[in-house]
Design goal:
The complex is a heterotetramer of chains A (451), B (320), C (247) and D (287). With 451 residues, chain A is of the alpha/beta class. Helices cover 36% and strands 16% of the residues of chain A. Classes of the chains: A alpha/beta (451), B mainly alpha (320), C alpha/beta (247), D mainly alpha (287). At the B-D interface, helix 5, helix 11 and helix 13 of B face helix 4, helix 9 and helix 11 of D.
Chain lengths: 451, 320, 247, 287
Amino acid sequence: MNKKEEEKVDQQSELNLSRRTVLSTGAALAGAGIIGSQLIDPAAKTAYAAGSDEPIRIGFQAHRTGIGALYGRWYERTTNAAAKYINSIGGIAGRPIEIITEDDGTDPKRGADVVEKLATKHKVDFVYGTLFSHVVMGSAPRAGELKIPYFVVSEGYHVASGALNRYVFQPCITDVRSQITAVANWIFSNLGKNVALIYPDYAFGYDHRDYASAAAAKSGAKITAKIAIPPTASSFTRYFIQIPKNTDVIYHVMVGPGVLTFVREMGEHFGSVDVFEHYGSKHLKLFGFIDSLEGVNINSPGLEFLDGSHFWEAMPRYADGYPTAAEKFYRDTVGIDDSGASKSDSKDVAAYSHMFGCWETLFAIKEAVEQSGYKSKKDYQTLIETFEGFSGFNEGIAHPQGSKVFSGKTHQCYGQQFVSQVKNGKFNVVHRTSIADGMYEPETDYTKKSL
Amino acid sequence: MRRKSLKYALFMQGGVLLLLFLLQFFLPAYHHSSFSKIMILASYAIGYNFLLGYTGLMSLGHAMFFASGMYSAGLSIFYFGFTPLEGMIFGTLFTLTVSLIFGLFALRTKAVSFLIVTLMFGQTFYLAILYYNEFTYGQDGFSLTDYLGTLSILGKEYLYSDPAIRYNFALILLASYLLITTLIVLSPVGRILIAIRENEPRTQLLGYNVFSYKLFALTFSGTLAGISGAMHALLYSYIGTTFAEIHHSISPLLWTLLGGAGTIIGPLLGTGIMFYLIDFISGITSNYLLVVGVVLVLTIIWFPLGIMGTIRQKWLKWLP
Amino acid sequence: MASVELLSTHGLSRQYGGLTAVDNVDFNFCQDRIQAIIGPNGAGKTTLVNLICGRVPPSSGSIIYKGKDISKLSSAKRVQSGIVYTFQVTSIFSNLSCYENVALSAQRSLKTQQGKWLMVSETVIEEQVFESLSRVGLQGKEYQTAGTLPYGHQKLLEVAMSLAADPELLILDEPTQGLAQSEIYNLIGLVRTISKSVNVLLIEHNMEVVFNLAEYVTVMDNGSIMTEGTPSEIENNHDVQVLYLGT
Amino acid sequence: MVFLALLDGTVTAFVLALIALGLSLVFGVMRIVNVAHGEFFMLGAVLSWFAYHWTGDALWGFILALLVAPVIVGVIAVLSERYILRKVHYNPESTIVATIGILYVIQQLTLMLFGPEARPVEAPIYFRVVFPWFGYSGYKLLVAAMSGLCLCGVWILMKRSKLGLYMRATQQDHEIATTFGVPTKKIYASVFALGGGLAALAGVLVVPIRQADHLMGLEPLLLSFIVVIIGGLGSLRGTIIAAFLIGISDGIISVFYEPTLAKMLATLFVVMILIIKPGGLFGESPQ
């Protein structure tokens, strides 16, 4: 990227991340049904007064093994940190939280069994925490049959699309469709209008394919290639050849154990973004979704070429990207250092753009339980209806990633997104979207479905 | 001997089925649903065993048949508005066709080559589901919950996902698989299949068209797997590529070998043991596959014939 | 005895690589008699019968059986039309019981006889099995696992399987090989009884057996037919003496 | 485009040949299918990460891994041969099941000791070869060259050494070899160790161009299966030719079709070869 462009980008995305702005974003949302507006003071320990000692049992469906294991580990750490913190401030409605974790092997078959096991054997109150979208798809019908609320942290568009049932909620992580909608225009106006998509041959990838294409059609940009990478691929060079010459931007997103290889081979093939001359006189730009690099140190060998390229982040990995008090509190409590790695091992990089969803979802459950007066499984209906009545969550310790708008119709939340540029071996936030940037017309209405 | 076998076998299976029928009134919810699952998967394994245990053909692509039944039933209900029964019938016929065509090609190869060809075909089928994701919903799959409607029995309406429906449908499936495979195995046709397993060239020289018998066994086995898949789709209303992956082909092999290849009841036993073993161990460690591995190695060293196979060799000679 | 041709080969050859195992053989088998093929090791006897029963395809030439060219038929089809082969080295189903071994053979022939498409009743099969086993003297061993029988009995089981196949032409490939003297005498008796209803083609090394049983003998050497004749003609043939005695 | 496809295909082919070589040897000499072969490959890669981590230096870590990983894996292979495969008498079907068991054990132990994530290992030397149209990893070319060297090494071992002679004799006829005084038990153990060691070696070479993770064994296993079967049972020449056939055709198909479709076509291509020639390209017919 040349200097002029850089200035332009900086101007456009001028960031003023003072505490006041953040709070005012929340304030803008104020109105009927906004909950969780008070910042919870960790010092004010409520005794488990009102409630019984009987804990609220939350079944955690974790990807401990299989392709989701890297995310699973961070989801587990975040969940445990959140549960510990919630218990330290008096639990949920005065009752302590108990997390019961079962591994689903990142497999939908086993996922459904795990939901069943958690519900019927461990007799949990809620099931929670699934990430991979195919596991959600496989597990959700079972949750619906068992009539147990199922809170996912998956960022898939499956919930909002209406494909699932009324028991499934995605309350605290924005879905892929909204993420793409929010950043697409920024890509087209700042990086270029001819975009080649590279995505995994999964539903997650199809969302990228479909909604990036839709956004392009709207704003007059052109998709020059759609390259779906099969899940079994371990070598990627050959697929890069298919990118046509009139391309300005490579839009890439990848998941699974092959991510680093993918990015590295991209670097080998195209060289550093600035030098690359192959595609006519223009410079080829890269825009990636952070999924391609979750858990990966940006300073790994072979990634030097990423310098100057842009990434979408849901929550900035580096502490200076979004320096709010709540963010800092969250980061410290989970045990993450300023560069997004584990405090105990700087080589252990977190899945920072996803795991906040676990933290926030537990707080959302807390809100719902407390507001609905949920006591036991027979109160599910009230709980679900209360939840559907929520219209958002305010930023704060409970929601450190930012305020959320929640749609009772789609059971889905919408939050702000970040665009960061890689510079000097770290991510630097250059643009923050508003929640409105990512909104779309709801395609379903779960409140009309039966319970 | 054969008639005695048949009589004893039917008695024993009848007993097992009766026990399973009665158990549904006593099992706690979790085990109730586990048993349903085991019975469905066991029926898949019984179909697999028909090919491996009685014809001697080891396939590593059976997930293809399971998935083809599951997807053809599921997609026809999802897109064409078929009723669940029509979906089942369509799924059965579709899988029958798939396995017949597959057999015509794959049975040109033998032994390890056959193994690889089944594996490759299975892999191709899996990739095809991914490739046509606009139609099949790719890896995510889709849910039939809103498309199945209810089932009316004696004037009452039931959901397919109702635990009692699930249990009894699985039981009926299992019972019919046990009965039909027992009858075939103990019929003259079964005798020929076993002969092929034992000594294929000699069977040819006894005047049998070995190819067509193998084709029959493969088609039958594939169709059984397909019906299990279709039934799974109805009862669990989720359809996804996880059922087409290679792991889902290895599973019936393991269940069958553990329970005893070439015994009718073995696959049921193997499936049940493996299910509960994994269930139990996954509560202790997430590395439950480690234990699966150890069990496999020990079984093959100490009980190469599987549990029922060893029992037959030692005590119950009549066991089919 | 009127000699009606049951089976004949015309210019039948088979090469393995560069080696010619059977070389342009015109062989005739006439109905209603025990005929034998003899010859030293590697003379091409076994290859010839393998060609006849379809285990190996011919390189050239044809095989006519009951007036029809069968050289393109599969081995299974040939068995169905009555050409039954009894193995030199026993090839039984050693993990199955004697009953099952014979039943396998019986149910096929019964099915062909009755022209049924799928099933033959087990009662009929059972009858046939018991009869075949008792004909070779294995009655009472029905439920013994075949592989546990002594070798001589395994050979008899082979014969029983062949009998149950309802042969028209029974090819016995070295039936006495590996048998004790007393077993050989029994076998000679058995074959003689069988031959009353079945055409027998005998491949044999043991001259005593050949001259005891055969009514017509074909001598093979180096893949071709050297000479043919009655046992006494063969016994006195100088070339055959040279071939066997080396003088 | 075709040039890159050929180049990438050739590199793939060399790596594939090296991985498949061990499987082919075991297949040919012992007549068994080792399903755990991919795990030996994975172990090589994982051990290489440990070596890299321990020495903290890409070059020395690489050299250490190159020397140590094949030995460790070879020892594991010998132990599983001695205590498992020998116990099931190398029965083909039992062996498949037993090695599936070994696969799970190795994979899960790795998961426990190494963790679930994919970990990068730095290449001992890193440079980009810049062609007029695109760049290509220099290390990849080096891997191809080293694979080629290993293939030659094994070739010489088979043709020139006493061990090779014994192996070929055992492959021809196990019983006759025994009567001629070939220590077949020892040969079996050595072949299995050699097979495992070669897979581990391939793992060490490959890991800098991908990453080490506990699930990485499956794909090379499937691919080397295909290569060995297509090449023909136990034919080393066939294995190498098949590796090139598959590597290059896969590379070219990938350029012209959508990736998933390309995988499908490549897989079907393999199936068709087998159906037309059930014995593989250079194997004896199974009849």
